[in-house]
Amino acid sequence: MSELDELLERFRRGPEVVAVAATGVAGSQLDYSPAPGKWTIRQIVCHLADAELVTGVRLRRVIAEENPVLEAFDQDAWAARLGYGGRRFSAALESFRRLRAENYELLKELPAEAFERQGRHSEAGPLRLLDLVRGAAAHAEAHARQILEIREAYKARGQARAPGA
């Protein structure tokens, strides 16, 4: 398997890595914030769904256009104004899965040279299609780790409050 094939497989598996990290999460654990200003598991999954929507547009623009400008977005404003705290967790996870699957379908048959096509991110500067895919794969993996950390903090908090602890 080539390095590109391995990257595309990591990209494809992102939603499942997140889903495994969140297996069994329910109730107050979904909305537990480990510290002021830190996102909850629900907010993280809503963010992943919306970020995948943005990623899809960026991928398509780099594939189809010549050196397009890829606008940054304010993730905290999206979280606050798009109601991440009140969105259904299961719907957000399903949206992330569906969008990632559609993006993977777009990418999987492209010739290797297409991954060298480039756009210009408004903050990060020049990015190849390969860089966007690598970033999206790492993004899901990082948030899966963050979900596991939040779950551990929630569990530790509960044990600290237990009688006799």
Walk me through the structure.
The chain is mostly helical. The protein has helices spanning 3-21, 41-64, 75-81, 89-108, 129-161; strands at residues 69-70, 118-121, 125-128. The protein has a single domain (3-158), classed as Up-down Bundle (Four Helix Bundle (Hemerythrin (Met), subunit A)). Helices cover 62% and strands 6% of the residues. Strand 2 (118-121) and strand 3 (125-128) form a beta hairpin. The mean pLDDT is 95.
Widest sheet: strand ordering:
1-2-3
Look at the structure and give the mean pLDDT: 95
- The CATH class turns out to be Mainly Alpha
Largest sheet: 3 strands, mixed
Taken in chain order, the helices and strands follow as: HHEHHEEH
What is the second-level CATH architecture? Up-down Bundle
CATH-defined topology: Four Helix Bundle (Hemerythrin (Met), subunit A)
Rg calculated over all Cα atoms? 18 Å
Query: Got a strand count?
Result: 3
Measured by DSSP, the beta-strand proportion falls in: 5-15%
| Shape call | elongated
